[in-house]
Amino acid sequence: MHTKITLLAGVAALTLTACSSMMMSTPDAPAAVTVPAGNKVVMKTVGIGELTYQCRAKANMAGAFEWVLAGPDAILYDSNKMAVGKYYGGPTWEANDGSKVTGKQLAVSPNPGSIPLQLVQANPSMGKGAMADITYIQRLNTVGGAAPASACGAGNVGAKQIVKYQADYVFYRASM
User: What UniProt keywords are attached to this protein's entry (predicted)?
Assistant: First the structure.
């Protein structure tokens, strides 16, 4: 009986390892937003929320106006649909354990009708936990979130509109 239990435990451990490896595979992405070699996927989430846009005058273009992203507000979910963190202005990704990371956009790839796919290089993280030592973040599989189609002009400068969106956020750390 002891041998059976040990064998079953071993099979279960191998199955979990295999599933974990499959879940953490590097996703397909356009070249522009591909993470550099030497980094591995450590967490995948789905962000569901809203993007706020504000009508503003275009810089260096007298009389021209545009909708500008004022900030995101989304909940990050794991593959079990459990909330594991949030995404908000900065840009900042914060895990439920209090760790967080900000970053700088390196590249985008268009996704017609939705916000573009994105590659972000992470700044040094704050706190210990899920966001510790993150090196890159990809935004993939975006749905919605594009700037409003409504008019933005002198008559509504400062107006805000909220647009719903969803995107996959993939987090990387340097390979050891």
Answer: Signal
CA-based angle 73:98:126, to the nearest 5?
95
What is the rounded distance in angstroms from the CA atom of residue 140 to the CA atom of residue 125? 21
- Among 147, 163, 157, which Cα is nearest to 58's? 157
* Position 69, amino acid: L
Global pTM? 0.84
Contacts of 154 (CB under 8 A, 6+ apart): 63, 65
In this structure, the number of other CB atoms found within 10 A of the CB of residue 84 comes to 17
- Single-letter code of the amino acid located at 164: K
| Digit-coded pLDDT (tens) for 29-51 | 999 999 999 999 999 999 999 99
Q: Cα–Cα distance between 139 and 16 in angstroms, integer?
A: 26
Nearest-5° angle of CA 168, CA 78, CA 108?
A: 15
CA pair distance 154, 11, nearest whole angstrom: 66
**Can you name the residues that pair with 105 across neighbouring β-strands?**
120
